[in-house]
TrEMBL record:
Record's keyword annotation contains NAD: no
Residue ranges occupied by any BMC domain in the UniProt entry: 6-93
InterPro entries associated with the record: BMC_dom, BMC_shell, CcmK-like_sf, CcmK/CsoS1_BMC
Name of this protein: BMC domain-containing protein
Subcellular location: Bacterial microcompartment
GO cellular component: a single term: bacterial microcompartment
SMART domains: BMC (SM00877)
Species for this entry: Cytobacillus solani
Length: 123
């Protein structure tokens, strides 16, 4: 698991605003999106970015400035967590990136169909 000097957490209203803030954060400094969570059907979105402390701080400040120019300031919370503990990182960053869920209904149907086919020998 990659270690980050700092985490930036930004919580805002509306999914489209969150994407705009994320764009500003990534353009302003060298941060990496670690996780995002949608609540209330995308009306409340949390973005978590990681990187060096100075990069994360610049990214969070850029998100704050971008949100100030919007009507009703949709930014609910923005903070920087320095030197995050490895126990916290287990809940944010998956230890298996690109993990594929194999037990889906579609996958189950495919495996049942392939198991159900029997080879018959010709006499």
């Amino acid at each position: 698991m990659k270690n980050y000097e700092a985490l930036g957490v930004v919580e805002t209203q509306y999914f489209t605003v969150a994407m705009e803030l994320l764009d500003q954060m990534c353009k302003s400094s060298d941060v990496e999106l670690l996780a995002s969570e949608n609540y209330l059907g995308g009306r409340l979105v949390t973005l978590i970015v990681g990187g060096s402390f100075s990069d994360v701080d610049v990214a969070v400040q850029a998100a704050k400035q971008a949100a100030e120019h919007k009507a009703n300031n949709p930014l609910k919370m923005a903070l920087v967590i320095s030197n995050p503990h490895s126990e916290i990182m287990k809940y944010i960053v998956s230890s298996q990136p690109n993990m594929v869920v194999e037990d889906t209904e579609l996958e189950s149907v495919k495996t049942e169909n392939s198991k159900g086919k029997k080879k018959t020998a010709k006499k």
